[in-house]
Amino acid sequence: MQPVTHRRTRYRDRGTALLFLLPSLLGLTVFLIIPLGASLLLSFSNWQMMGETHFVGVANYIRLVSADPIFWKVFRVTVVYTVEYLFLNVTISLAMAVWIGSLSWGRQLFRLVFFLPTFTPLVGVALVWLLMLTPGGVIEWGFASLGIPMPNLITEPAYALQAVIIVSLWSHFGYNMLLFGAALESIPATYTDAAAIDGASAWQRFWKIRLPLISPSLFFGTVLTAITSLQAFDQVYALTRGGPGAATTTLGYAIYSQGFVSYRLGYASSIAWVLFAVIMLLTAFQLRMQKRWVHYDV
Q1: Residue 110 sits in the same domain as residue 190
Q2: I want to staple 60 with a disulfide (CB 3.0 to 4.6 A). Which of 124, 131, 251, 270 is the partner?
Q3: How far apart are CA 75 and CA 68, in angstroms?
């Protein structure tokens, strides 16, 4: 009788666990799995909201990579934005974390000040920056008062993407700064003190000891920042609408433009799945490379 009782208890526990998990599973299914499946099916159709819908197989993907006149330009813009933003975000965040950690007072105040922009909606931040960057705005007035000519960063193709990157950095670098700062403070002081006694310079202590010890946090911040930068949309929509021309059109904005402006939802879905594939490949590459530079031993 004991095995039967044990089996009943196990089934009852599983049923109870399933009951508690059911709301989350339903939400995951309704709001994630079903939309993902529908998007994948749409990418193999010519659905345009109006007119007949036909199954076109991989025609959308073939057209995307071989016949679309701006896809590769959009792809290049997305890659340039991601690489530049990722490098600047990680570099500035790490530099600010090291600087704040070296202060004898005001650490919490500075962390709060630099982290606060991450709470503000990105569209609202971008609109405020748009007002500052437009002709006659406070930035142009500041440069004019110094006698320095200031080009219009929003309408000049050579500068528009840099304006988007600046706004993104101002809004988001605080998260990684806080992450890296917490990792730096968790390093036992005995490590750096022993290295200082052995004659290691401040740079050597940072490069050889502190940086390797915070590599798990660096890896985590790098992966998340790369994923979010590939999906950039809000700041592009609010600042430039992808212009001038296609100078700031990212894959995220191209999905919106094709799906909700041109109503070519099938084609937009194919772009979305290309973006999904790029994110998966980049994440897999980063996970593979972590074995070479991420150290989990403390």
Answers
A1: yes
A2: 270
A3: 12
Q: How many CB atoms lie within 10 A of CB 147?
A: 6
Whole-angstrom Cα distance, residue 187 to residue 101?
Answer: 12
Report the candidate in 102, 104, 154 with the shortest Cα–Cα distance to residue 133: 154
Torsion angle (degrees, nearest 10) of CA 89, 95, 98, 99: -120
List pLDDT tens digits, range 128-144: 999 888 877 888 888 88
Neighbours of 84 (CB within 10 A): 16
Q: Is the peptide bond before 244 cis (omega within 30 degrees of 0)?
A: yes
31 lies in the same domain as 69:
no
Residue 297 has pLDDT above 70, yes or no: no
Q: Which residue has the tokens 């992966």?
A: 223
19-38 average pLDDT score: 90
Q: Is 78 found in the same domain as 33?
A: no
Expressed as residue numbers, the domain containing 174 is 60-293
> Which residue has tokens 């304006």?
163
